[in-house]
Design a protein that fits this description.
Layout (H helix, E strand, L loop, with lengths): L8 H4 L11 H4 L5 E5 L11 E13 L2 E12 L4 E12 L2 E6 L4 E7 L7 E5 L12 E14 L2 E10 L10 E4 L3 E2 L1 E2 L13 E7 L4 E3 L18 E7 L3 E15 L2 E14 L6 E15 L2 E6 L2 E7 L7 E4 L8 E13 L2 E10 L8 E6 L3 E4 L14 H4 L8 E8 L6 E2 L20 E4 L6 E6 L7 E6 L4 E6 L4 E5 L6 E9 L2 E9 L1
Antiparallel strand pairs: 1-2, 1-13, 2-3, 3-4, 4-5, 5-6, 7-8, 8-9, 9-10, 10-11, 12-13, 13-14, 15-16, 15-26, 16-17, 17-18, 18-19, 19-20, 21-22, 22-23, 23-24, 24-25, 26-27, 28-29, 29-32, 30-31, 30-33, 33-34
């Protein structure tokens, strides 16, 4: 059994090495670079960002010719934080790491080892009370060559001889790459979930990728911080508005998710239950990763949006109440600006399903889907969670998008109504003296207002929430053409200075 000074391979370091080291330039060439996943702390690592390291120069420390390694951390909001510079040097097929606090070099990897060897390395003195001259033993179980671009690298698979002392369960280190974790030399902390897992190593002759993710992959921050959505809410029995707002973080299946609190404020106009009521709806859970948004439904995560998709691509998403999932196709992509903030969008078409026709809509980054025309002079529908707006129920809620805000977009208001507008209780049921006839309708519909005012408007939607007609109501008697509409049930929403009124209309 032979002993060599070697650090805690995979538990402690992030440094470059090389097979058959003949000189400094061969084991850590200028431009050598590493990408590591930034772990999230629990479960298998779901990367919230990445660490990047690169050899940038030569330098001298204590008379030794060293390589200078610089880098940064990029988090899920694409915020960059510089990392402290690291310094290593190679000698006799061994790699040493400079520890500035103690002004000493620690031998970090030994590439002259053979399978069956027992290696001894010094433990870094991280705290003042750490003993200065302790060591740690590992056993080399096997050595395997793996292809890496134009090169091939040796991987040393090791297990601890006395793992209980340092909570180290074994792993690997490799030429040029080092261990699979990035952290300061601290072998006590070896729990993989709180460290960076390596994704890629590259230099002029070698390249190796360890995951399916791109080397510089990060979470996108699709959800704005402190985000709030307001939706006007209309059904055949009540109307009002729904507020959706982010309410902290949670873990589901070890994945960090956003909690979406949902509150419905509604007016019931039917006696004897007339009044204004507040209802807390079940929360929703979602997370964004790699330009994708996934939502938790019942027993798993399902995709809602994917900004990696290009025109012609399709996405399958769940729709509660449907016999099977729905599909939408991306038609075009682009950029728009809301409240001075540039956001991406996708024009999409919901493909036909059973008796339901196709439907065009727009998916806007942060906001979600918007149906119909989008702009300050329209009344677009839409809802953050697609599975609810496409519930496949003939008579379901009509969710009209009103407002969005977050830390960047202080307020984006669509249409003439305040975000949290609701009919006052003492004005139920007809604050403007509204009457609608004939009902059932055939060729036309008359909307009569006893007290018309500037700004009175209407919107007529079908049972799926699709806008089929909209406009102003400037007169006491206003005629809406319904001759071209298919027979069925419709919702008529009327906005006046006194409130919002909803009527159920039948087209014969």
């Amino acid at each position: 059994m032979r002993h060599r000074w070697l650090p805690l391979t995979l538990a402690i370091i992030f440094f470059p090495l090389f097979s058959q080291i003949k000189g400094q330039s061969e084991w850590a060439p200028t431009g050598a670079r590493w990408h590591y996943c930034q772990g999230t702390g629990l479960g298998e690592p779901i990367c919230g960002g990445y660490f990047y390291l690169e050899v940038i120069a030569d330098t001298t420390i204590g008379g030794r010719a060293c390589r200078k390694i610089s880098g940064y951390q990029k988090n899920w909001l694409n915020q960059v934080t510089p990392l402290p510079d690291r310094f290593t040097y190679a000698e006799n097929d061994s790699v040493y790491y400079y520890q500035p606090d103690s002004n000493r070099f620690l031998l970090t990897f030994d590439f002259s080892a053979q399978a069956g060897d027992t290696l001894e390395f010094p433990t870094p003195r991280v705290f003042p009370w750490d003993p200065p001259d302790t060591s740690f033993l590992v056993r080399v179980d096997s050595i395997v060559r793996r292809p890496a671009g134009q090169d091939s690298l040796r991987f040393f698979y090791v297990t601890p001889v006395d793992w209980a002392s340092w909570w180290f369960y074994g792993g690997w280190y490799a030429e040029k790459i080092g261990g699979k974790l990035i952290q300061s030399p601290f072998p006590i902390v070896t729990i993989p979930e709180i460290d960076g897992f390596i994704r890629c190593y590259a230099d002029d002759s070698a390249f190796i990728q360890f995951t399916d993710e791109p080397c510089d992959y990060t979470l996108t921050g699709w959800f704005g911080q402190e985000a709030r959505w307001h939706y006007g809410y209309s059904s055949f029995t009540y109307h009002g508005y729904e507020l959706v707002e982010m309410d902290g973080d949670t873990l589901i299946q070890a994945i960090p998710c956003k909690i979406f609190r949902r509150t419905l404020k509604k007016v019931i106009t039917a006696a004897p239950f007339a009044g204004i009521f507040t209802e807390t709806l079940p929360p929703r859970y979602a997370y964004d990763i790699g330009d994708r948004v996934l939502v938790w439904i019942n027993d798993g995560f399902y995709p809602l949006y994917d900004f990696n998709l290009q025109p012609g691509d399709t996405l399958v998403f769940p729709a509660q109440g449907c016999a099977s999932a729905r599909v939408y196709r991306i038609d075009s992509v682009g950029m728009l600006e809301l409240a001075g903030v540039p956001l991406r969008y996708q024009r999409a078409t919901l493909l036909p399903y059973g008796p339901f026709d196709s439907l065009s809509f727009t998916i806007i980054e942060r906001i979600g889907p918007v149906f119909g025309h989008f702009g300050p002079d329209t009344l677009p529908a839409g809802y953050l969670f697609l599975d609810e707006i496409f519930s496949c129920h003939i008579e379901g809620p009509y969710l009209e998008f009103r407002c969005y805000s977050d830390e960047d977009i202080l307020l984006y208001n669509v249409g003439p109504l305040p975000c949290d507008f609701i009919v006052p209780a003492d004005n139920i049921p007809d604050p403007a003296g509204l009457s609608v006839y004939p009902n059932p309708a055939s060729q036309f519909l008359v909307v009569r207002l006893e007290y018309p005012a500037v700004g009175d408007r209407f919107a007529l939607t079908d049972a799926l929430g699709r806008l089929v007609a909209a406009g102003d109501l400037p007169l006491q008697e206003n005629t809406i053409d319904t001759a071209g509409l298919p027979a069925g049930v419709y919702l008529l929403s009327v906005w006046t200075k006194d409130g919002n009124i909803v009527r159920r209309i039948v087209r014969q």
